[in-house]
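Exercise 7. Given the components listed, write out the predicted structure of the assembled complex. Treat all entries as one system.
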Amino acid sequence: MKKNIRLLITKDYEEMSAKAFEVFKQEILNGSKNFGMATGSTPIGLYKNIIADSKSKNIYADLSYFNLDEYYGLEKEHEQSYYSFMKHQLFDAINASNTHIPDGSLEIENSIVEYQKILDANVIDLQLLGIGNNGHIGFNEPGTPFETHTNFTRLKNTTREANKRFFDNDIDKVPEFALTMGIADIMKSKKVLILANGESKATAIYNMIYGEVTPLVPASILQTHPDLTVVIDYKAASKLPIPTIGIDISSTRVKIATFDIHSNKTAYDVINHQDQDILAIIDEYLPKHLGDMTYKLGVSISGQVNDGIVNSSRLSFKHFDLKSYLEEKYNLDVTVVNRANASAYGEYVSKYSTEDSLYYVTIATGIGGGYVFNGEIVSGKNGLTGEIGNMIVDDNNAKTSIFAEGSLEAVYEAYKNNKDVNFEKYFAKAVSNIIHVIDPSIIVLDIKNPEIDLSIIDKIKEYVKEFSIKGTKQTSIVVSQVEDESLIGAAHFVKQK
Ligand code: F6R
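Answer.
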């Protein structure tokens, strides 16, 4: 992304409007007097903020306002003319008198000449823009040359379709023509502030920032503007390759890393937490990883996760809303996932993204499992899907004090103490059950306990073959080769959200 672009990504429309208001007000405090204004649904929240602020001290009345565009052929007083829009959404409430809007009720030539005269006589300090789904700015539709000044334009059907919501949902009532400030006029303003929210704008925003500079995407010219601020919500940002942060919380360590837009790790800390407070570690390290841009944060954590609320006896989290804690404290978009599921996702994105489904099993202190289907983590209740360790596999009812009788984890505990226990066989039983129930295309085994010999994998495969029902497709069983899979999984999963 170009250095002249300042990109601010917000949680939602309200936050986008509040951020835009901050930028707008700062510009006034810096002494600017001439503001380019936009209509449409996007800036309404910003205008509400301005009106609210004007109630305590009206610093807005004496500024000059220059609007981008106006429908052609609507009476000024028509409720959907941009003249009426500005009057009702902003100008009346702030007592603005120095306002300029192209006049859609004059002869075309006169309107154009009159408005261009005004634009030529003034320099706009900050031009506010919305963006069309097709990348238009003002009403400069795709194909408009970048050199144009105030012009008369035929609206594309996509634009009329998008705007029919203001005209009783009847496209025939949407004017066919409009007058608009030209792209050359927009580019002449000292600063540009463009806002967008909602998924329908995501492609236009991607093309504006990363696409080729072409009249087919009018907003792409803004890449060449020396001072552009883009304030968009997560939905409008959903197609951008945004850098992310991952935090991985295991029973022994906290790992924190940043990933650039190409998914490379750019900064990395590993902290043993032992008896330290995990939140204190996050509070110490996370700020070091935050940049100017708002990041998305993915957290993977051992334990149950329900809508960001964590229950983890090992980590002493009891019904703790980790998601809200981090979102509020750091103003980030946070997703919290169960660690085994994050690992499954990390394996999937790093190596197996062409597979339709992947089941991941870790054999570490305990035995955990996670499941990715069609590119999504399948979370299940409490964020746990593939709790393979709880599967009952042993008719002789291996017993431990904590695990269910006959469960794979109970067998595993017995095996840790006595290598004569046929763990491979019981493990293969559990894996076969997984295959019979969810039929994943690939199963990744991650053996993290150094005391376990990797040769058990061949034995497991043999048993799985023995247990498999004739005629079912063979699931391939592979050994994990991805490092930091849960960290990568958490950071990448949140990117897709
Ligand atoms: C409005 C304008 C248009 C809109 C764009 C997005 O003055 O020039 O470019 O900004 O059509 O419209 P909304 O905000 O309604 O999605």
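Discussion: The first strand starts at residue 5 and ends at 10. DSSP finds 14 helices and 23 strands in the chain.
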